[in-house]
Amino acid sequence: MSLHVLVSIYSSLGRFEEAISVLERAIQVPDPPRSADHAFAAFFDHMQLGDMFSMLGQVDRSIACYEEGLKIQIEALGETDPRVRETCRFEFLCF
């Protein structure tokens, strides 16, 4: 949780490269067996990282993060869950 606070601080200061570094570290933090909470956190981290890469004009890296986040969400919720459709609608990942 403290890593996410740090990401918010760096982002609000416009220090996106540092925020990205912290987010990448947060994604790597080992967790106990994957639970729904872990899946949600991993999904959120990947989507936020995708947003930051997008703001920096790094489109390929942004799309890769969105795709990984979507993959995590589908594994946790299933393809037919309405939240997956919502992610696809906002991130333009599903065609």
From TrEMBL:
Residue ranges the record marks as coiled coil: none
Classification via InterPro entries:
TPR-like_helical_dom_sf, TPR_rpt
> Record's superkingdom?
Eukaryota
Q: What is this protein called?
A: Protein kinesin light chain-related 1
The scientific name of the source species is Quercus suber (Cork oak)
